[in-house]
Amino acid sequence: MDRDFCPAPLFVLSVEGDLHGLDTPGNRELIRRIEACVRACDGISTEELEQGVVGQMRQLLQDIVPVLQSRQATLQERTLAAA
Fold first, then answer.
1. 57 CA to centre of own chain
2. What is the mean pLDDT of the chain?
């Protein structure tokens, strides 16, 4: 999704997920994105979202995943060497 240009959507999405307004591929894609965001953020409060918790979690994962992968590789090497 282009973050630099996003014209105002011309639709309303009901609580039941019904689309009222222009049925365009762009609006359908936006609704798909909204639904995915809502599912992904289940259990995270609005306040936490406003404070940037999702960005913080992404950064933490970017920082920690390489460390965990490195440790896993080291453990595998030690296991093979001991065998």
1. 10
2. 85
